[in-house]
Amino acid sequence: MATLNNFLAATDLSAPARHAAERAAALAGSIGASLALVHVASRAPLDQLRQLLSAGDDDVEQELLDRLRLDLRGLGEVIHQRYGVAPALSVGIGDLLPSLLAEADALPADLLVLGARGASFLRHILLGSTAERLLSSARCPVLVVKQPPHEPYRHLLVPVDFSPIAARTLRLAAALVPNASLTVMHAYDVPFEGQLRYAGVDDAKIAHYRSLAASQARTRLDRLVEESGIDRSRINSLVVQGDVSQRILEQEQESDCDLIVVGKHGEGVFEELLLGSTTKHILAESQNDVLVAV
């Protein structure tokens, strides 16, 4: 199983961002992991503040940082009281993305937790090229929290291909939430189906190709589940046809899951999808939290 000893939660100290810190604390407490909370004060507004300060206001910046540390300490105390986890606290100054990655490497973190609805800079880390840079640069799994942690995760949706990271993704999901059920899904398509139709291949033969592709996918999915070593009673295996992004979002609703777990690397077309459009689409459009494995 995956080793999950150290969690790092980033917060911009807004009320929405507290959801990520609380979810991280709940998860850490449930499996005995340690937790660190970090707030990164963006360098750009601090530089702007320096330009505005007069010579007699040199201590304003320090007072601001002290205020941030006090606010973070207050959040840490709330978390300790509510979840029984005493987090380490850190306030840094710098560019958000490299600062977070440096903090994660220094810990070293086994899980980086971010809120999707922060009040300021944090929310922008999940948009466009910044999200791609984060997912491609992070050396540990990244959990994006969208919902308040009213209750533990109970049902995880784990879309997989059959690359080496698929087994790691499945084990990570099982280890992070040991009591949750898992729907392990693979989406397949018949290669070049449109071209086959254009070439005059009849519907019966295409249906036969689909049947073969589905059968092969089910066999490989069963093998993946078996090799994962996870209790089979926890797992519902599902093979579907169609676009990966669309099927993930459909299954999110149909299975009533509360966490989607995907791998950031795959093989072939699936790799391109997960690193690019699919991950961004799932992060933007899913209703529930998303865990991206490495």
Name the features.
294 residues; alpha/beta; Rossmann fold; 2 domains; ten-stranded mixed beta sheet
Please describe what this structure looks like.
The protein folds into two domains: 6-145, HUPs (Rossmann fold, 3-Layer(aba) Sandwich); 155-293, 3-Layer(aba) Sandwich (Rossmann fold), CATH 3.40.50. Helix 1 crosses helix 3, helix 7 (164-176) packs across helix 9 and helix 11 (268-275) crosses helix 12. The longest helix is centred in the C-terminal third of the chain and has 26 residues, at 203-228. It is α/β, with parallel strands linked by helices and 294 residues long. The protein is elongated and about 75 Å long. 50% of the residues lie in helices and 20% in strands.
Outline:
The protein is 50% helix and 20% strand. It has 294 residues and is α/β, with parallel strands linked by helices. The longest helix is centred in the last third of the chain and has 26 residues, at 203-228.
Shape: elongated
Whole-angstrom Rg: 22 Å
For the report, how would you describe the main beta sheet? 10 strands, mixed
Broad structural category: alpha/beta
CATH architecture type of the largest domain:
3-Layer(aba) Sandwich
Regarding CATH, which class of the largest domain?
Answer: Alpha Beta
Strand content: 15-25%
Average of per-residue pLDDT values: 83
**What is the CATH T-level topology of the largest domain?**
Rossmann fold
Number of domains: 2
Number of DSSP-assigned strands? 10
Strand order of the largest sheet: 3-2-1-4-5-10-9-6-7-8
Helix content: 40-55%
In terms of per-residue confidence, which ranges show pLDDT below 50 for 5 or more consecutive residues?
266-276
CATH level-4 homologous superfamily of the largest domain: HUPs
Please tally the helical runs, counting DSSP H or I stretches of 4 or more residues: 12
Question: What is the succession of H and E elements?
Answer: EHEHHEHEHHEEHEHHEHEHHE
